[in-house]
Specification:
There is one protein chain. By secondary structure, the chain is an alpha+beta fold. It has 2 domains: 82 residues; 107 residues, Alpha-Beta Plaits. Helix content is 57%, strand content 24%. Strands 1, 2, 3, 4 and 5 form a 5-stranded mixed β-sheet that branches. It is rod-shaped and about 140 Å long. The termini are far apart.
């Protein structure tokens, strides 16, 4: 009796039967493919991480290209700065002695002082420990006479002058003039000018 009723049920409810078969088939597919879902999720996570890594690399490359474009500008600015510094250096060798001393004679004429002693005494100590320094101090001993404003002008001209200077020692001595003229002072300086070896 059940064998007869089953085909009648199939004939009366074909859509319901197809849906039931489809549900059973999908349930079996999900049951047997549940391990594949975990591996697919793992693969999706790997691909997402790889995509993020590639995107970061592209962003970094774009950033480096922008920095590389600015690198040429920075190199040109550094080259100009080095040229400006080297234009202000003196040379330590004796062949450049007249050029180096001419600087102090120029200061004398600008400040209307009188140089009574001017000697290049050699090279100052190197500031770089070990190895060869790029720049050295060229030492000078200078004696100048003049009034207080003239000597002050000489020191200011030296400080703001063409060459980089460092005063190592200063001695100021005075003497009065009995004729009622301005008091003459003597200034002795030990200084270094920044130079090339």
């Amino acid at each position: 009796m059940t064998a007869i009723k089953l085909p009648n049920f199939i004939k009366k409810q074909p859509v319901a039967l197809v849906c039931a078969m489809l549900c059973v088939g999908l349930a079996l597919a999900i049951y047997f493919r549940r391990d594949a879902l975990a591996s697919a999720q793992s693969e999706l996570d790997d691909k997402t991480a790889q995509e993020k890594h590639l995107k970061d690399n592209v962003d970094s490359a774009n950033s480096l290209n922008n920095k590389a474009d600015r690198l040429d500008e920075q190199c040109a600015a550094m080259t100009q700065a080095i040229q400006a510094i080297e234009a202000r250096l003196v040379h330590a060798d004796q062949s450049q002695l007249p050029t180096n001393l001419r600087y102090f004679y120029k200061l004398q004429s600008e400040t209307q002082t009188k140089l009574i002693d001017l000697r290049q005494t050699g090279q100052g100590p190197s500031t770089k420990k070990g190895g060869k320094a790029a720049y050295i101090g060229v030492s000078y001993t200078i004696g100048v006479q003049g009034s207080y404003p003239q000597l002050l002008g000489f020191l200011r001209s030296l400080e703001n002058g063409e060459h980089f200077s460092r005063v190592q020692g200063v001695t100021l001595s005075g003497g009065g003039d009995t004729a009622g003229k301005a008091e003459n002072l003597s200034l002795s300086l030990n200084l270094d000018l920044l130079g090339l070896p």
